[in-house]
Amino acid sequence: MRLRPHPLRFPAAALAAALFATAAPTAAAAPSATTTTAAPDYCAARCADILPPGENGNATLAEILLNRMFGSRPAHTDDQLGPYAALASGYPGLTEAGLRGFFNDASFGVPADQVAGTTSPRPDVTIVRDKAAGIPHITGTTRYGTEFGAGYAAAQDRLWVMDLFRHVGRGQLSGFAGGAGANRQLEQSFWQTAPYTEAELQQQIDVLAARGGRATQALADANAYLDGVNQYAQQAYNARTFPGEYDLTGHIDAITNAGSIEPFKLTDLVALASVVGALFGAGGGGELASAQVKSAAEAAYGKDAGDALWKSLREADDPEAVRTLHDGQQFPYGTVPDHPQGEAVPDPGSVVPERLVYDATGSAGTAATAAPGVLPGNLLTAKHGMSNALLVSGAHTDDGHPVAVFGPQTGYFAPQLLMLEEIQGPGISARGAAFAGLSFYVQLGRGQDYAWSATSAGQDITDTYAVPLCTTDGSPVTTAADFYLWHGSCLPFDRLERKDAWAPTTADNTPAGSYTLVMRRSNYGLVTARGTVGGAPVAFTSLRSTYRHEADSIIGFQELNDPGAVHDPASFQQAAQDINYTFNWFYADSAHIAYYNSGTNPVRAAGVDGGLPVLARPAYEWADFDPATNTARYTPAAEHPQSVDQDYYVSWNNKQAAGFTSAGFGNGSVHRANLLDDRVKALLRNGGKASRVSLTQAMEGAALADLRAEDVLPDLIRVLRSAPVTDPGALAALQRLEGWLADGAQRKETSPGSHAYADADAIRVMDAWWPLVAEGVMRPGLGDPLFTALTGALQINESPSGGQSGPVSGGPVSVNESSPHRGSAFQYGWWSYLDKDLRGVLGDPVAGPPARPFCGGGDLAACRGVLLDTLTKAAAQTSAQVYPGDAGCGAGDQWCADSIVQRPLGGVTDAASTWQNRPTYQQVVQFPSHR
């Protein structure tokens, strides 16, 4: 069995022996004498994948201490990080044979000479680990045994991560992992988003069970999986081979072994699913920020002109936006009405966030702590831009079979949130990635003759209601009232409480503290803020269509793993339809590519604008809305964006199709998906053919590109060059920028491992210039109140380093902007605003232009003056000013500021790697045959 020895049975002597002895290797049975593959594999060694840093996410306390003292790491902890990082420098010379140097072989099974070890936790299942990456290949002769093995392998690789996230999903992280400020911030944000009682978690399981059929099988699978998880956890505890984080956080005594690992149960899986759904599968909810932009615009320019300006800044259905479906398909959803009904714009200055924390004691009153926390505090509240996909149909490839390069961009953690696995058993045949704790099915990966992946879609499934407040004792109604109006009745809010308490541990020295988290819930959703509308006190609530339905997607994932259920584009689209979270799903087999947008999209009342707060009245509710079950009428499958065999598909969280309204701001003429779209178009131009190599090169070229430089800098240069540039400093900076643009406008090392960028000075200037020029162009025309409101709806910048943010208003920013070293960049920013405005100043045609000119008031000479002034200021900033440094980087270290850091979720850390803007887990596939 894969149980690592735990040497800390005795005091200091044993610890010293463990530290100064050779680290004990993973225990494993002798390699199997035969290959493990039994399932048909139609990929013929043309499927590949990668997931850094490594498969092994468990380290004993001794291994953690050895890592901290000597830098050593358990086997397979970081062995996928090197190939992943190396693609940044290796992609220009990539060959078909060379792909294996940057990706794992994702074929089914393990060749006999590549078997590292075999474990059989039950007679009806075998877990084989490969030598290359230590990935578990699970083969069962019964359905129960197969899923038991999946759970056992998951606990081997991600037990600590699974435990972390079941506590995150319940708003209980601080009591489990420590009271660090970030831990508290994170548990608070999840309690605000998905608060449930234990009975309500169980109720979601009961509702699923009542559906019968596949749901019954899914719950049986989940129970078998949990049995495997719990058996491994108990064995690891008995053998003292459990993750050392349990020691460091005080759950188990390192000397006596006193303590326990709490068994996992079905409700834990619902809590875990709520985390995944909230992070990656929701959309909408920004209606208050949008309303504040609208209010500020109308205050500055009057009702009609202000409303027109707000609409142009919102870019809800921008005609210049890059679309995944580019053949003119129309899929109207969330259409902005000409005359909105039930609009509830808050009175200026009246909105106050709902109080969450009560009864704080001890360190609960201190937000900042020395301990960093196990996860970013804003993991949920910060905006997410994740995942990309490039697919080319067989009509445009080298051998006539479709090619796909795709995967989720889920951030970088050690160990990773995802894990790799292969599962083969009755009714299951798949290999790929799954979230830790939910890996009874592969969630993104390949089947016998098809592969699938997803990007976050983010369409609007979350609405904000302005709910009238009331009292039952005749007292005046204020915003503090604890009752609300529902269909003429004055009802009390539900009060959902979570009590958290923590004490200092070895891992987290935050002093003891406690508090109670309180969320109030109405029939119109969770209370997020209070204020007034037309002077009347209201509670602003958030109503998400997937709330109380966190586990419903289990059916779709089951189907994706079942070769009897998915065998062509139509059956794939049906499986995707059975997933209720908002994702863009992509499919490739040997003959077809396909796309489907999933999500339970509520049908709104006629005339309601889902992009603004709505009055809480029956006339403006979702069609057929039932608050008891949080169900409604949803748009039918035919109205979801979908397609089969378009010439190519690209997605990087961009607009899906014409008419499919964007939930938030920032989906305009310049979007990071343009980086993919332009490169695929170039591959196919003049009859060109794509291959696995060329499509990977297109992806990686985009991964190193600076979107601002590639798509907005040409506009800036044209304005600056509209007259001679005579200032020497400005001219030198401009010439450096022009040289960088000519070199491809990428952020790439001078040579592999140099830790220095080519065109470094131009990059420094661009980084310093963007927030200055964006503010210089836009603020004068917007005015201070509207400028501030707009930064609350859409941040100005999202740089690779997470710095150079420019003015902010306290609204949500991107994960990368607020938590640097995350890789993902250039999703959220004012790129489109400047692109459209500058092209207008230059006299170019602009579809969907801003409602008024901004740069220099529309005068080219005045605009040029703004650009010159801000460029001169940017060029004068030193590297230390642009990149001020952090705990891991010195001031002025440009490469380090951009670098990707695998944020440790436990005790083992990994080296930083060069910046890339690409999926965390990624597949490269081309099936040559089909069943």
- Report the biggest beta sheet as strand number plus sense, adding barrel if it closes: 10 strands, mixed
Query: Which structural class best describes the helix and strand composition?
Result: alpha+beta
The helix count comes to 26
- Reading side by side through the largest sheet, how are the strands ordered? 3-4-5-12-13-14-15-23-24-26
Number of strands: 30
Radius of gyration, whole Å: 27 Å
Percentage of β-strand residues: 15-25%
- Overall 3D shape: globular
Q: Give the proportion of residues in helices.
A: 25-40%
Which assembly state applies to the chains in this document?
single chain
Low-confidence stretches: 1-37
Taking the alpha carbons of the first and last residues, their distance comes to 36 Å
What's the mean pLDDT score? 93
Enzyme class: hydrolase
Signal peptide: 1-23
EC number: 3.5.1.-
Keywords: Hydrolase, Signal, Zymogen
Describe it.
The strands form 5 sheets. This protein has a 10-stranded mixed beta sheet. Strands 7, 8, 16, 17, 18, 19, 20, 21, 22 and 25 form a 10-stranded mixed beta sheet that branches. The chain starts with 11 loop residues before the first helix and ends in a 6-residue tail after the last strand. A hairpin with a 2-residue loop joins strand 21 (525-533) and strand 22. It is 32% helix and 17% strand. By secondary structure, the protein is α+β, with helices and mostly antiparallel strands. Belongs to the peptidase S45 family. Residues 798-820 are annotated as: Disordered. Keywords: Hydrolase, Signal, Zymogen. It holds the Pfam family Penicil_amidase.
